[in-house]
Amino acid sequence: MLLFSILTAAVAPGISLLTYFYLKDRYDAEPIHMVVRVFLLGVLIVLPIMVIQRGLLLWLGDGPILFSFTVSAGVEELLKWFVLYHIIFNHTEFDEPYDGIVYAVAISLGFATVENVLYAVFQPASVGSLLIRALLPVSGHALFGVTMGYYVGKAKFANEAKKKRNFLLLAAAVPLAEHGVYDYIMGSGSTYWVWFIVPLMGYLWIKGVRKMNRANARSPFRMLGHEEEIKL
């Protein structure tokens, strides 16, 4: 019974955040089965990410900057980007800019949820520690996903090949940088880490909400809905 409670507490933040970002799609919500599939893809990439990270640790070592930006953030964000681009980018259900955010958040939270479960099972997890993980790493992964999905959405509907390539590059580079900074702060060992991580998370949330609003504002279904209201 205790294990079930711990697992529920570990899974709940990811599901709650995914529901929040899904419901923020104002004009043409994605099929739930598609969102669940992408979430499960995030679950499935945990193993290859762990294998690659282990190999890089043995090869490169674990210097704080190298670990934060290459071994941790680099591997995780680039693999999420790879899956998102090759499986979702050209899918017919990807038909408005906000969809990029939904799918990127789904794959990010699939990964983060498994990470949270592993932490809860193999570490002496308490309610307080799981709450902190919900506010920091799980939310962090979701917000890195917002950044990635925002630029993937811009790339999807860019009308020039050069712009498309640039947005796809930003979709990988910007969340990688954000994630790297986050990991560097958390792994610094400083007793003052909270003074750095709280402003960073505040910045990520404010920026994330703004990008969500911008993506929704560019939806082709927004204008269709407006035209229907005029006709009525």
Automatic annotation (TrEMBL):
The answer to whether keyword Hydrolase applies is yes
Q: Name one Pfam family in it.
A: PrsW-protease
This protein's membrane topology, according to the annotation, is: Multi-pass membrane protein
Question: Where does it live in the cell?
Answer: Cell membrane
Instruction: Alphabetically list the UniProt keywords.
Output: Cell membrane, Hydrolase, Membrane, Metalloprotease, Protease, Transmembrane, Transmembrane helix
The record's section on InterPro entries has: Peptidase_PrsW_arch/bac, PrsW
- GO terms for MF: metallopeptidase activity
Signal sequence interval, chain numbering: none
Does Metal-binding appear among the keywords?
Answer: no
- Entry's transmembrane regions: 6-23, 35-53, 100-122, 134-153, 192-209
Query: Where mainly found?
Result: membrane
Provide the E.C. number(s) assigned to this enzyme: 3.4.-.-
Q: What does this protein do?
A: Involved in the degradation of specific anti-sigma factors.
Q: Family, per the entry?
A: Belongs to the protease PrsW family.
Q: Tell me the protein's name.
A: Protease PrsW
Q: State the species of origin.
A: Paenibacillus lignilyticus
